Structure formats: C-alpha cells, structure tokens
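Backbone geometry tokens:
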Amino acid sequence: MRERPVAPGYLPKEKWGDGPWRKEPDRAEWKAHGVPCLAVRNMCYGNWCGYAGVAPGHPLHGVWYTDCPQKCGKKYCEHSPERVLSVHGGVTYANLCDGHICHVPKSGEPDNVFWFGFDAAHFNDLSPGIRAYEKARGFETFFSCGVYRDLGYVKKQIEELAKQLADMKP
C-alpha cells in the first residue's frame, strides 16, 4: 500500500506537536464480532476514521448510509444506516473497498465488503493536524481544542459498530 500524501497547506504528522498521536500507528486492521474492522488516520486533519465492513448477503451491503434498505420511499427513513447505527458522531461513510479504505482479506474471506464508517473530527474533537495548521497561521477554531479521540477510543467505537452490524441477521 502506498503512502497517502498530505494535502497542500497542511503539515506532516511530525509537525503536529506532542501528543498521543506521536506513538500511534496511522492504520489498524482487525476483526471483531466476525466483522472486518479498520481504523485509518486522516493525514491532513490528524483525526481517526473508523470502519466496519459487511459481506454480500448482509441486509445493509450496498446501502448508502442515508438510504432506506426497505425502500419505504420516505426522504428521511428511520431504517437508514445513519439512523439505526450508533457510533461517535454518527455514520458518515458507506462504500465498497476504495483506495485506503479497504482491507486485506484472509483466505476464504470476501474481498467485496461494504464499509460503514465515522470520523472523530466533530465539535469537541481535537484534530492535531488542523491544530498545527491553525497554530502556524495564528488562529484557532473548534478543531484546535477539545478531546483527542485516540486509537483505543476509536477501536472501541468500531467494535460497537461491528457488533451492531453483526447482530443484523440476513
């Protein structure tokens, strides 16, 4: 897997300053509740994004996070993944493997999983990359303060998401 570049104007991780992010990896893959799990750091903002994937045959496989899997026709369906799945900041991503949001399947596992994800870059979440960018330019927004959601926190959130997905029967 090739290295993801930092967008122009943002600072590389080694310039984010001191914090737990200095000792954390930038990616982790594992399985929880029989579901592939993935944590990927946003290399511009510095926050974590978390994902849990479902295999073909799962009732939410291929369902965009705002869509209704039951095709009820309502604009804001109470059955949509964003409404039925509970995770930090809400579900903000749904897609097949694509680029760095993909896993390496073990032998016998499907490679066409559909990922549901979230990010830890919401109000009151510290994003160290943004903090460094803003500090270098002499200003501060809500991304510069708050609580840094470390890998341990994000892993727990991903595993809770994985459990919710595993509990949905095909």
